[in-house]
Design brief:
Helix content of chain A: 40-55%
Largest sheet of chain A: 4 strands, antiparallel
Oligomer: homodimer
Number of strands of chain A: 11
Largest interface: A-B, 44 and 44 residues
Chain lengths: 224, 224
DNA sequence: CGGCTGATTGAATCAGATCAACTGCTGTGG
DNA sequence: CCACAGCAGTTGATCTGATTCAATCAGCCG
């Protein structure tokens, strides 16, 4: 069954007992969203969480003035908004499809039953939330203790690591990258120009090539 | 037994099956730390987590330049560093006693066994981590989208709420509060002066009185 | 009474935001 | 096939919140 395959493709459920996968497949539903569509908004009542089958989703917080901060960008295999299942049933941020996407939806009540039945699944989820926390700790450190060039350097090193190559394409528009790094497109643009001038990177549109990894690492550590 | 009472006093274990409490009491040990003592450091190997019986502990990240950001301040009944149990076994931040404190220590391996045995305990922990995530989301929003006066106003409202009174004492030195809000003592001092001048608060040493809650709320929302 | 720590104030500076203009690309419709 | 609307990105000029550097002050403890 196709649903079962999609559930199994969610990394949260990797290596989970096939019996539990089937149980999960019986409670999920699919949801197709188009580019730009809001999936849920900050503060909205939450009755379940999602995972991405195809496409890309951004999670962000916005303030009345219009400024936004992108907390995460999730792609295929990644779950999001699990938090809402356990805590006060409200989404803590807004989710929007960055392109046409196919999602899975897991209703909270049924999912909690699955959790109670399989302690292994709880441990997986605990590990996932722990990872998210660690990620946020880094974000907080970056925002409060480091400057934009430092954050950008760190981000490039992460991207290079995950692509396993010195050349890669940015996985989102530069305006979104700015909101992800806690700055504005103007500042990002200037920072990119500076990095090119200093020979740290080369850039052609959305394609970045790391030219001086050691210098980027020093910069990321805050020795800029 | 005294240990059992201390374990039961940890809010993470409120309403947990007494049988499991006993099991937990059998695996914990106590640790006495003096003021200023480092309990663990960022990146250090982690083999368990802690909770506070008496005293106060701050969790922070520091960069080489000497700047620090205080992520949490934990008091009696609160657990910390649970994250290290589930994810790659490293402490993601540094913990330091702000005063002489008595702690409980839960070894990870034994604790995981207790988790597997009691699904209820897993759910409690999931809820706790979810709460931490929500807290961090707010911190990230504050740091990237709001200014210092806005963050301080929000903090005062939280304190007033938890004390259920318009007058309260700061629970840490102002220098620490500054590091908690992502700024410096100088900036905090000036911001406090401005708030007094504008009649939003009154201050006498570490004692704060809220005088214009509505204005503080507007400020906290970012309408300042 | 020193001496330490935390807090406050002032002046100078800076990173980044803001405001505004312009470029270049892409897709659409005449 | 071209014209142009619309959006992402870049660049310049300016402004400002916050940091930095420096000095002083207040309280507390041995």
């Amino acid at each position: 069954m196709e649903l079962l395959r999609d559930v199994a493709a969610t990394s949260l459920f990797r290596d989970i007992d096939p019996k539990d996968l089937t149980r999960l497949a019986n409670i999920v539903s699919t949801k197709q969203v188009e580019k730009g569509q809001i999936i849920f908004s900050t503060g909205e009542a939450a009755h379940g969480f999602y995972s991405v089958i195809t496409g890309k989703v951004r999670i962000f917080r916005a303030v009345p003035s219009g400024k936004e901060h992108v907390l995460h960008v999730f792609g295929p295999g990644e779950a999001f908004a699990e938090v809402a299942v356990f805590k006060d049933m409200r989404f803590p941020a807004t989710a929007q499809a960055m392109e046409a996407s196919k999602l899975l939806y897991f209703p909270a009540v049924e999912f909690k039953r699955a959790l109670a039945a399989d302690p292994q699944l709880s441990l997986r989820l605990l590990a996932l939330l722990s990872e998210r926390l660690k990620f946020f700790v880094k974000k907080i450190e970056d925002l409060s203790l480091k400057e934009v060039p430092s954050r950008l350097a760190g981000h490039f090193l992460v991207l290079a690591g995950s692509h396993n190559a010195d050349t890669f394409r940015l996985d989102m528009p530069k305006s979104q990258l700015a909101a992800y790094l806690g700055t504005l497109p103007e500042t990002l643009s200037r920072t990119l120009r500076d990095m090119q001038n200093k020979g740290l990177i080369a850039m052609d549109g959305a394609e970045i090539t790391i030219q001086d990894a050691a210098a980027l690492e020093a910069l990321a550590r805050g020795e800029g």
